[in-house]
Amino acid sequence: MAQVPYTAASDLRRTRGPSPLQKGFTLLELLVVMVIIGLLAGIVAPQYFSQLGKSNTKVARAQIEAFGQALDQYRLDVGSYPTTEQGLIALRTAPADTPRWQGPYLKRDIPADPWGRPYVYLAPGQKSEYDLSSLGSDGQVGGEAEASDVVSW
């Protein structure tokens, strides 16, 4: 068996890797990957956005519950719920005619509902001593799913 003499060029050929014609992906492979990603996005995106709507409703429900606790504390101190004219702001700043006010009853300012609209507060309410509600994503009374009203009663 004849021995091939060692040269730097022969070493270089062994360490270069694949030739330029063997590198990269084919157009077909890229298209298959893009189709798979598109199918996954078509399945996942509707699920994600439906969960987003549900989470806004849950946030509104939690905020209404927190307002309810603050309103109950206000009633214990003052003797009645704030009137519709006084509104929820009475939980943060003392109305002029309430000497027994011991608030603030909320740590932060009154937030808008998750859809950016103010909560609707009525006292006395039509359903209970006070009615507190969010009109949902559509801003209209009634509705279904994410557009449904979130209420305190």
From TrEMBL:
The chain crosses the membrane at residues 25-45. Its main location: membrane. GO terms for biological process: protein secretion by the type II secretion system. Keywords: Cell inner membrane, Cell membrane, Membrane, Methylation, Transmembrane, Transmembrane helix. Gene3D superfamilies: Glycoprotein, Type 4 Pilin (3.30.700.10). It is a single-pass membrane protein. Residues 133-153 are annotated as: Disordered. Residues 48-153 form the Type II secretion system protein GspG C-terminal domain. It is found in: Cell inner membrane. One of its GO terms (cellular component) is plasma membrane. InterPro entries: Bac_GSPG_pilin (IPR000983), N_methyl_site (IPR012902), Pilin-like (IPR045584), T2SS_protein-GspG_C (IPR013545), Type2_sec_GspG (IPR010054). Belongs to the GSP G family. This is Type II secretion system core protein G. It comes from Leptothrix cholodnii (strain ATCC 51168 / LMG 8142 / SP-6) (Leptothrix discophora (strain SP-6)). The lineage of its organism: Bacteria, Pseudomonadati, Pseudomonadota, Betaproteobacteria, Burkholderiales.
